[in-house]
Design brief:
Elements (H helix, E strand, L loop, with lengths): L1 E6 L11 H8 L4 E6 L12 E2 L9 E2 L1 H12 L49 E5 L8 H7 L4 E5 L9 H8 L3 E5 L10 H12 L10 H4 L20 E2 L2 E2 L9 H19 L1 H5 L8 H5 L1
Parallel strand pairs: 1-2, 1-6, 5-6, 5-7
Antiparallel strand pairs: 3-4, 8-9
Helix pairs in contact: 3-5
The structure holds 6-chloroguanine (6GU).
6-chloroguanine (6GU) binds next to loops.
């Protein structure tokens, strides 16, 4: 998988060289590149934002700089009609979506990629946005199969709404996601969260893929996970639940499942409401 991230603070993403993400990159499973949006500016101040049309506080990220950057990273040709910097441009005619096996035009002759990174997949363009639908585990699962993800990090009061509109009209798969009901200073941390949630689900990323199957938020009957313990059996007077030491796998499974149900009902009743009844067994119903 190839991941491009555009930001005015690309250093935020230096941490992706660490831990499992670093290992996945060393293995050639993943290629993450952070780009500085200001590299696509032409003015002396490298400005990327402007005041909001209609008034209001703060600044909004300008579409022209973003478009030059995204056109290049998506391998699209910049249309002449959008060349003007004064906003007096022609309307864009929507085109049909990319063919299966769509391949971006090469932006430089030296652009070769390791064979492990699928280059033929159509890219997915993702904008973090606190006013967008919530990013969930099922979005992460779906995106873990993509060949190319391109994230655009907004700052200030956000980005001009025509940026995602324009790329959607070009037939690009464009997503906007929030990561939770709180406000961050910019999209960088939200993108870090999404990239980690997505990449860990890629085949071959995890040493032990079983650890993904049993997790919270995974599958039809998504519940919060049961609590975990390690040795010693008694620590500072606190004992591990006895059933976990019994060696009876049936009883251990039942105990964990009951705990997952009880904790979910208490902490996240919305997840119980959303449960598919078919995901519950007879013993579950008693819990
Ligand atoms: Cl995606 N961006 C920002 N700036 N704040 C957020 C968010 C995103 N998701 C939750 N809060």
């Amino acid at each position: 998988m190839k991941i491009d991230i555009v930001s005015v603070f690309p250093e935020y993403f230096d941490v992706f060289g660490l831990s499992l993400m670093g290992k996945a990159q060393a293995k050639g499973l993943l290629e993450v590149k952070a780009h500085n949006l200001r590299d696509w500016t032409h003015d002396v101040h490298h400005s990327v934002d402007d005041t909001p049309v209609g008034g209001g506080a703060g600044m909004v990220m300008k579409p022209e700089v973003w478009a030059e950057c995204l056109d290049e990273l998506l391998g699209l040709n910049t249309p002449d009609v959008c060349a003007g910097g004064n906003g007096e441009t022609d309307a864009v005619t929507p085109q049909s979506g990319p063919e299966p096996g769509w391949e971006p035009a090469e932006t430089s002759s030296s652009m070769s990629q390791p064979a492990t990174i699928p280059a033929s997949d159509a890219p997915v363009l993702i904008f973090p946005n606190p006013s967008a639908p919530l990013f969930t585990q099922s979005d992460a699962t779906e995106l873990s199969h993509a060949g190319h993800l391109l994230f655009g990090c907004g700052r200030y009061e956000g980005y001009d709404a025509r940026i995602p509109d324009y790329y959607r009209a070009q037939g690009i798969d464009v997503r906007e996601y929030s990561i939770g009901d709180y406000v961050l200073n910019g999209g960088e941390v939200a993108v870090s969260v999404m990239v980690e949630a997505i990449t860990r689900l890629m085949p071959g990323f995890m040493g032990n893929p079983d650890s993904i199957v049993e997790e919270s938020y995974t599958g039809e009957g998504a519940l919060l996970e049961h609590r975990q313990y390690t040795k010693p059996a008694v620590w500072r007077g606190l004992a591990v639940p006895e059933v976990l030491l019994s060696g009876d796998h049936g009883k251990v499974d039942r105990f964990r499942r009951d705990e997952a149900l009880a904790r979910t009902a208490e902490i996240r009743p919305d997840l119980i409401e959303a449960l598919d009844c078919k995901a519950l067994d007879k013993a579950d119903r008693k819990t």
